[in-house]
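Researcher: Structure for this, please.
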Amino acid sequence: MSGLWLVFPFVGAIRLSTVLAFMATLVIVTWFRRSPFIAVVAAMGWVCAFEIAYQAVATVYGQYTPIHLFYLTFSLSGWVVAAHAAGIRPHPLLVVGWSLVFLAWIVFGFQPNGYGQSGPLSVAQELFNMATKEGLAAIYVVGALAPFGLPSRFRSPNLESNS
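Model: Predicted structure, token format:
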């Protein structure tokens, strides 16, 4: 482990906060929905949705090529679609609020800290990264526990008994 990152073999460096948010999503959704499958779909859905948005902006900033973004989006969008198909529906107002925070990050300069970077750690950039990534995790958890726009007859019976 190096600072804010965990380094996994064959995967690389991942922020500690991302790993913790992923694990929290798995635990919370499994606990309330009683379905580890739905929990994995929710966790992968938010991670993939975030990576698509993040790398789209990074492509505009010249950090990635458009073909990289195309293949990444093509590869990861299935989890976002699977989350929607599984009834994980984030509330649109929460997504708008999240988008405003993401936009604020872009306006502030969108210079995320990278693993092994040579310059000093930017606390402000790290806070924006965490607010957007973990904020989207929270939105997906809420969307899994209280799906927006999903009629009650289509909701999980486990959710109805916990209400």
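Researcher: Any notable elements?
Model: The chain has a mean pLDDT of 90. The chain is about 65% helix and 5% strand.
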